[in-house]
């Protein structure tokens, strides 16, 4: 199963996650990240596909994972930037 970020809080950790568990309301746009060589992080064999909608990202990630189970596939939100750089850095470094 692809690495799915994020899932709804009430989803049990050991559950097979479904699209209904996917926190698709976090963002309107998503990317699917594929690591074709996760054994060697230095190689940089990453591909990011998108932006796409939540359902398209979900379907794409699962189809790729079905065909290439040894690849690491992740679904990631894209957040709109509506703050100054210093504010973004402060937010990223905060404990909140």
Structural description of this entry:
The structure is a single chain. The protein is of the alpha+beta class and 96 residues long. The chain has one domain. Helix content is 24%, strand content 24%. It has two helices and four strands. Strands 1-4-2-3 form a four-stranded mixed beta sheet, with helices on one face. The radius of gyration is 15 Å and the shape is globular. The chain starts with a strand and ends with a helix. The mean pLDDT is 78.
* Binned strand content: 15-25%
Number of strands: 4
Shape: globular
The number of domains: 1
DSSP helix fraction: 10-25%
Report the end-to-end length measured between terminal Cα atoms. 29 Å
How many helices? The count is 2
Order of helices and strands: EEEHEH
Present the secondary structure layout.
Elements: E1 3-4, E2 29-35, E3 46-52, H1 54-67, E4 72-78, H2 85-93
Parallel strand pairs: 1-4
Antiparallel strand pairs: 2-3, 2-4
Key phrases:
96 residues, alpha+beta, four-stranded mixed sheet, 2 helices, globular
Task: Offer a quick outline of the entry.
With 96 residues, the chain is an alpha+beta fold.
């Amino acid at each position: 199963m692809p690495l799915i970020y994020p899932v709804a809080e009430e989803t049990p950790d050991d559950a097979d996650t479904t699209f209904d568990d996917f926190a698709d309301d976090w963002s309107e746009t998503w990317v699917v990240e594929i690591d074709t060589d996760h054994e060697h992080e230095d190689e940089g064999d990453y591909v990011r596909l998108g932006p796409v909608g939540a359902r398209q990202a979900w379907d794409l990630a699962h189809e790729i994972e079905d065909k290439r189970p040894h690849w690491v596939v992740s679904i990631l939100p894209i957040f709109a930037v509506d703050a100054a750089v210093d504010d973004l850095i402060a937010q990223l470094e905060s404990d909140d």
